[in-house]
Amino acid sequence: MKSIYLIGAPGSGKTAVALGLALKLRQEGFNPGYFKPVGSTAGVLDRRDEDGVLMKTVLGMTDDLETIVSLTAGNFYVSGQRDPKKSRDQVLKSYQRIADKFDPVIIDGTSFPWVMASFGLDAISIARDVGAGILCTMRVKNDFDFDATLFFNRYVVAKGLPLVGNIFNNVPRPMLAKTQGVYARLLESFGYRWLGTIPSRPEIHSPTVAEYYDVLGGEILAGEDKLDLLVEDVLIGAMTIESALDALRRALNKAVIIGGDRSDYALAALETSTSVLILTGGLYPHLNVITRAKEKGVPVILVHYDTVTTIERISEVARRIRPGDQKAIALALENIERYCDWQKIIETLKT
Hints:
Layout: E1 4-8, H1 14-27, E2 33-39, H2 50-59, H3 65-68, E3 69-72, H4 84-99, E4 105-108, H5 123-130, E5 133-138, H6 143-158, E6 163-171, H7 176-189, E7 194-199, H8 202-205, H9 209-216, E8 219-222, E9 233-236, H10 241-250, E10 254-259, H11 263-270, E11 274-280, H12 287-296, E12 300-302, H13 307-314, H14 326-339, H15 342-350
Parallel strand pairs: 1-4, 1-5, 2-3, 2-4, 5-6, 6-7, 9-10, 10-11, 11-12
Antiparallel strand pairs: 8-12
């Protein structure tokens, strides 16, 4: 059976799809394994890739995590400390160890399919070397995201790789009808397979406050015990209080990003459905803000980036399912069964 390589962009829920697909394949009598060529770590001190930990635990894999997730890389991985050939050999040997035990192997792509291209370890190069089929998982919020889906499909085909199809994942509710109708039909009119549309579900797709903190760092001023709150929306405090009140009331379970000197805005946000206050610029807020946040059970994170940099950094925030999160694990399987043509995926992998 052919291995399957999941590619996409941040927020497209590749690992959730990999998890659900692995569980479904197991139900159907297969022996799926998991492999992540290039992983990432949460924070400076944590050297483990959390997706690898999740899949190792759920699938009961006995392989070392260093085999399941062959390499980890940050934004500045190109240096004299890494040897491209040794890195490439390490990835391919690790994959083979997994492939010798499991069939099929589900390969989980990194944030973007071009990561580590300078080492020949981008998704397309690895998929070609191991003979894997490509499954695109994309979060489509607008027409440009759909353009990216088409671009990925065309590139895969141009490189001569087998294209399993496309799953639109973590799709916002307002975009569901257009995604299932217009985008799906248009995709298939170009000759590419649409395999399903999975709606955004907060329980599995919304990041927690802890995941924001992992990316942003900084100092927790309140709510250390509330870092498991889900963040379903992000609001930037760049307007007057009078102008912002309606937006503050409409956005639920939100992260509010404001300068530390905007105590009036922070206090207003705390009276609405807010999961976390992120204060920028390294400016400590008025004591009243901390006191009220503790009363409301809302975490407050102080970061030393300016607001623009903070907004750029939160694009890296992604929801990670933990091994003990049985509800999210069950939902990952349900998403595959309910919203995807998993039979077609299995049929394609067999050919």
